[in-house]
Specification:
Blueprint: E1 8-9, H1 11-19, E2 27-31, H2 43-49, E3 56-57, H3 77-86, E4 94-98, H4 108-117, E5 123-126, H5 129-135, H6 164-173, H7 184-187, H8 196-212
Parallel strand pairs: 1-5, 2-3, 2-4, 4-5
């Protein structure tokens, strides 16, 4: 495993790494862009048109538990190891993740967390994402790279995940602090839920909560 790395790295740092041709087995750059359907943006198509040189595309819709009816549930250890191995990521690779959100960062922190969950500590998020990268006039390309496959061994940190049953039980035993990271309007039910499938999940959870009260 590579040594301790910073959670955030700047555009200047990554640009210097590109200039010095460090991208390879020891450093991989991943574009983890993902958008809500209502934005009508195709992350993979945008990647093909413009991305940071040497970057590979991390598709959060593919690297997930395909057997689950819910979006973006964590894949198994073997599935994650196989997926990132195909992106050239090994256990000694420093991974830098970014996305092209207008906010500067949206999906990249999720992929950062996935790597950490599967035991990989050498992972960073590009501070400000593609938005800041372009603002600083850093290079982009449409050339696609084909990284050599690497061997990755994943080890789940089960304590980092709570199940539906854990959260439901926590309503009565209060063993951990639960934080809702949605905007206030959605948290208070004052704004419509933009994802229909999530609205149904929240409705089911509310019904289950009423049953245990």
């Amino acid at each position: 495993m590579a040594g301790q790395v910073k959670t955030l790295v700047g555009a200047k740092w990554l640009a210097e790494a590109l200039k010095n041709k460090r991208v390879g087995p020891s450093l991989r750059v991943l574009d983890a862009s993902w958008y809500l359907p209502k934005l009508k943006r195709d992350a993979r198509e945008e990647f093909a048109q413009r991305h940071i040189p040497g970057a590979s595309f991390f598709d959060i819709d593919e690297c997930c538990d395909r057997s689950s009816p819910y979006d973006h549930m964590l894949p198994g250890e073997d599935e994650f190891a196989d997926y990132v191995g195909n992106l050239g990521v090994g256990n000694d690779t420093h991974v830098v993740v970014y996305d092209c959100s207008d906010f500067g960062s949206f999906a990249a922190p999720r992929v950062w967390w996935m790597f950490r969950f599967f035991g990989h500590r050498s992972v960073s998020v590009l501070n400000g994402g593609m938005k800041n990268w372009l603002h600083e006039g850093r290079p982009v390309t449409d050339l696609l790279s084909a990284p050599e496959r690497a061997q990755f061994r994943a080890e789940r940190n089960a304590a980092w995940v709570k199940t539906y049953e854990d959260v439901l039980q926590n309503l009565t035993n209060r063993k951990f602090q639960l934080v809702d990271a949605r905007v206030e309007g959605r948290f208070r039910g004052l704004e419509p839920e933009p994802r229909e499938e999530l609205a149904e999940i929240l409705h089911t959870f509310t019904e289950d909560y009423q049953d245990i009260k």
